């Protein structure tokens, strides 16, 4: 009887051992597959990192010949500073009389000027100077009407093809968000507008292009637009080239970020609230949790 039990126990032990070995082999195979997947993924990420590093280094090397715009002391850059509304209004005048001939502001409506650069009556008068296509009317036809505050700034061209044809194949960019869309922001815009020079000796510029030290490649399809006294400011400010560039750059900062001043105001309020609230929260935490940390509980056996 004991020999039968012994054989039965040993056979069960052998079966359990075989099952354990099979489980181990299955786990090892799964682990090796997972290891291969992990190593493969690591290799792919490593290769992608190397390629990205090479691309960035090549781009940086290619941009070594470009002149980066200097950092100018803009009045609205400090944390507690706001946009100079007089400069923004003058910048709109520069855009209206110089830039609007080629560039659009398709995301800015006349109503956006109210309370920012113009009064409501002035904005209505500006809108009324523009004829806007509307309709259809009761006869099913489109018609022209004077602009309203709800209308957006008109584009100088009907479509991109017309714009390219009028500018030697170059498409003038929309200026609504141009400051936020350029590295260097208003520093770049100011430098670009004042960066026209005669080409250095040995540098050839194609017909219809102009040398600009701050434009990538130094050859730009836009001719110099700002000159001394090219317009006359309403407020009598001397219209030098640098003043014109400064004002239109400030205006384009406003078009790119109409809530610039509101954002800074809310940020200042948040900092002020945090300066008061977080010390009180820290004191409350110390007061409450100090009792919990120092509390001792004795249990009777």
TrEMBL record:
<dbReference type="GO" id="GO:0009055">
    <property type="term" value="F:electron transfer activity"/>
</dbReference>
<keyword id="KW-0472">Membrane</keyword>
<dbReference type="GO" id="GO:0005743">
    <property type="term" value="C:mitochondrial inner membrane"/>
</dbReference>
<keyword id="KW-0496">Mitochondrion</keyword>
<feature type="binding site" description="covalent">
    <location>
        <position position="99"/>
    </location>
    <ligand>
        <name>heme c</name>
    </ligand>
</feature>
<dbReference type="InterPro" id="IPR021157">
    <property type="entry name" value="Cyt_c1_TM_anchor_C"/>
</dbReference>
<keyword id="KW-0349">Heme</keyword>
<feature type="binding site" description="covalent">
    <location>
        <position position="103"/>
    </location>
    <ligand>
        <name>heme c</name>
    </ligand>
</feature>
<keyword id="KW-1133">Transmembrane helix</keyword>
<feature type="transmembrane region" description="Helical">
    <location>
        <begin position="265"/>
        <end position="283"/>
    </location>
</feature>
<keyword id="KW-0479">Metal-binding</keyword>
<dbReference type="GO" id="GO:0046872">
    <property type="term" value="F:metal ion binding"/>
</dbReference>
<keyword id="KW-0812">Transmembrane</keyword>
<keyword id="KW-0408">Iron</keyword>
<comment type="similarity">
    <text>Belongs to the cytochrome c family.</text>
</comment>
<feature type="binding site" description="covalent">
    <location>
        <position position="102"/>
    </location>
    <ligand>
        <name>heme c</name>
    </ligand>
</feature>
<keyword id="KW-0813">Transport</keyword>
<dbReference type="GO" id="GO:0020037">
    <property type="term" value="F:heme binding"/>
</dbReference>
<keyword id="KW-0999">Mitochondrion inner membrane</keyword>
<keyword id="KW-0249">Electron transport</keyword>
<dbReference type="InterPro" id="IPR002326">
    <property type="entry name" value="Cyt_c1"/>
</dbReference>
<dbReference type="Pfam" id="PF02167">
    <property type="entry name" value="Cytochrom_C1"/>
</dbReference>
<feature type="domain" description="Cytochrome c">
    <location>
        <begin position="86"/>
        <end position="238"/>
    </location>
</feature>
<dbReference type="InterPro" id="IPR009056">
    <property type="entry name" value="Cyt_c-like_dom"/>
</dbReference>
<protein>
    <submittedName>
        <fullName>Cytochrome c1, heme protein, mitochondrial-like</fullName>
    </submittedName>
</protein>
<dbReference type="InterPro" id="IPR036909">
    <property type="entry name" value="Cyt_c-like_dom_sf"/>
</dbReference>
<feature type="binding site" description="covalent">
    <location>
        <position position="222"/>
    </location>
    <ligand>
        <name>heme c</name>
    </ligand>
</feature>
<dbReference type="GO" id="GO:0006122">
    <property type="term" value="P:mitochondrial electron transport, ubiquinol to cytochrome c"/>
</dbReference>
<keyword id="KW-0679">Respiratory chain</keyword>
């Amino acid at each position: 009887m004991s020999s039968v039990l012994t054989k039965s126990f040993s056979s069960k032990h052998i079966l359990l051992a075989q099952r354990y070995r099979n489980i181990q082999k299955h786990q090892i195979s799964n682990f090796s597959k997972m290891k291969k997947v992990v190593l493969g993924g690591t290799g792919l990420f490593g290769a992608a990192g190397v390629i990205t590093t090479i691309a960035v280094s090549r781009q940086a090397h290619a941009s070594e010949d470009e002149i980066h715009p200097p950092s100018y002391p803009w009045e609205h850059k400090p944390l507690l500073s706001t946009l100079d509304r007089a400069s923004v209004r003058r910048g709109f005048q520069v855009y209206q009389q110089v830039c609007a001939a080629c560039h659009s502001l398709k995301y800015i409506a006349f109503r956006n000027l109210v309370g920012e650069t113009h009064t409501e009556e002035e904005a209505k008068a500006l809108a009324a100077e523009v004829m806007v296509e509307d309709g259809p009317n009761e006869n099913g036809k489109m018609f022209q009407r004077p602009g309203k505050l709800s209308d957006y700034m008109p584009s100088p061209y009907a479509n991109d093809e017309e714009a390219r044809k009028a500018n030697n194949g170059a498409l003038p960019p929309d200026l609504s968000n141009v400051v936020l869309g350029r590295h260097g922001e208003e520093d770049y815009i100011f430098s670009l507008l004042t960066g026209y020079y005669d080409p250095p000796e040995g540098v050839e510029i194609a017909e219809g292009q102009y040398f600009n030290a701050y434009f990538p490649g130094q050859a730009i399809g836009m001719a110099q637009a700002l000159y001394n006294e090219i317009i006359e400011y309403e407020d009598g400010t001397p219209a030098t080239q640098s003043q014109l560039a400064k004002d239109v750059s400030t205006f384009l900062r406003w078009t790119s970020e109409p809530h610039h001043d509101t954002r800074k105001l809310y940020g200042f309020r948040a900092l002020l609230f945090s300066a008061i609230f977080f010390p009180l929260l820290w004191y409350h935490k110390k007061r409450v949790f100090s009792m919990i940390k120092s509390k001792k509980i004795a249990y009777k056996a």
